[in-house]
Amino acid sequence: MPADRDDLLRALEAEGRRSTTDGVHFMQAIAERSGMSLTDLQCLNILAGTGPITAGQLAQEMRLTTGAITGLVNRLERAGYVRRDKDPADGRRAVISLVTEAMERDGANLLGPRDQIMETLFDGYDERELAVILDFLRRTNAMREAETARIRAEISAKMSEQPTH
Question: Given 18, 19, 52, 55, which residue has the most CB atoms within 10 angstroms?
Answer without folding.
Answer: 55
